[in-house]
UniProtKB/TrEMBL annotation:
GO terms for molecular function: hydrolase activity, acting on carbon-nitrogen (but not peptide) bonds. Residues 1-22 form the signal peptide. This is Polysaccharide deacetylase family protein. Pfam families: Polysacc_deac_1. One of its GO terms (biological process) is carbohydrate metabolic process. Residues 82-284 form the NodB homology domain. Its main location: secreted. The keyword Signal applies. It comes from the Bacteria. Gene3D superfamilies: Glycoside hydrolase/deacetylase. Keywords: Signal.
């Protein structure tokens, strides 16, 4: 039996103790390939990656171990000032060949979310367990990206809800077993393939004691949903250093409550309603952008509550609304993002009400 979607999310408040002088949030960077000849949409060149890592070092960012930092945030423990984490998705060999030497030279820890089927099949463009063991000795951590990199919300033709959920559970369990067998450890973290999840999958992840990342952008804090955490893409169109600097200096949007309407878009334009915490903010400077549509329409319901609406429905696929707002210092932007999936019948997605 599939659980019902949460249409609104109450965002937890941070404890103020011990966090006044330290960072209570974490930007997480997401990469894939480090290569000049792989698909540009998911790649950075070695030169671009070097530029990014040099900036982190020169600007005195503190690159932290992701799993440890997330555990600290959940416990309301302070992170170092200018803390940031580095991640990769997919088990591409270019991470070892071109990315790892750059990270090792700077002594930066990093996490790679691996899909294990190509590793087990010894495919030449993918990492080997021996390479991963070598990277472990210099700050590399390897986490779950499923076995076969499936769309986790799509069922096989004729598959029951129970069989689908069992198959997804096996996708996670097999990777966890392989991590323990080959690397002697697992950080109990997952990156959803294509960033797609729903309440049922997130509850499964929680039951397994795991934390997981979607593909919405933003920064993590104690009030985040730890079964659907944000990251900032830093490859392809997002690889410009000027863009990266803005993201690295972002803070979590100071929200008390968000209402998104669920994980799936329909033939109507999507909308989100955001309720802000008490405080002094530049709310008049809040701007929300819709994938491929430009600015969203903002309707203020009260002084602290706004609804952002897309101008037209999304096409089939994933779409998002990103909202930003400068803080009073002008040095940082508050950041919020939400992703919806617009399905078509032939794709076999689970019930949109699941």
């Amino acid at each position: 039996m599939l659980s019902k979607v949460r249409y609104g999310v109450v965002l937890g408040a941070l404890s103020t103790s011990a966090l006044v002088q330290a960072q209570d949030y974490l930007p997480v960077l997401q990469y894939h390939h480090v290569n000049s000849s792989t698909p540009s949409s998911t790649s950075v060149t070695p030169e671009q990656f070097t530029e990014h890592m040099d900036y982190l070092k020169e600007a005195n960012f503190k690159v932290v171990d992701l799993a440890s930092a997330l555990a600290d945030l959940k416990a309301n423990k302070a992170l170092p000032d200018k803390a940031v984490a580095i991640t990769f998705d997919d088990a591409w060999r270019s991470i070892y060949q071109a990315g790892f030497p750059i990270l090792k030279e700077r002594n930066f820890p990093f996490t790679v979310f691996i899909n294990t089927e190509p590793v087990e099949r010894h495919m030449r463009k993918h990492l080997t367990w021996e390479q991963m063991k070598e990277m472990q000795l210099s700050g590399g951590v390897f986490a779950n990206h499923t076995v076969r990199h499936p769309y986790m919300l799509r069922k096989i033709k004729g598959e029951t809800d129970e069989a689908w959920l069992s198959r997804m559970s096996n996708e996670l369990d097999e990777v966890e077993a392989l991590l323990l067998k080959n690397l002697d450890s697992s950080p109990k973290m997952l990156a959803y393939p294509f960033g797609e999840s729903n309440d049922t999958i997130r509850e499964l992840v929680k039951e397994k004691g795991m934390m997981a990342f979607g593909q919405q952008s933003g920064v993590v804090n104690a009030g985040s949903n730890f079964e659907n955490l944000p990251r900032f893409p830093a490859s392809g169109a997002y690889s410009k250093l000027s863009t990266l600097k803005t993201k690295l200096n972002s803070k979590p949007m100071p929200l008390l409550y968000e209402m998104t309407g669920g994980d799936f878009a329909t033939d109507e334009p999507v909308a989100i309603t955001l309720t802000f915490k008490q405080g002094k903010y530049r709310l008049k400077d809040l701007t929300c952008y819709v994938s491929g549509q430009g600015k969203a329409t903002l309707e203020w319901i009260s002084e602290k509550e706004v609804t952002a609406t897309a101008k037209k429905p999304f096409g089939v696929g994933r779409g998002r609304i990103n909202c930003t707002m400068p803080d009073y210092s002008g040095k940082h932007y508050y950041w919020y993002s939400n992703v919806w999936i617009r399905t078509s019948p032939e794709q076999g997605y689970v019930s949109e009400k699941s």
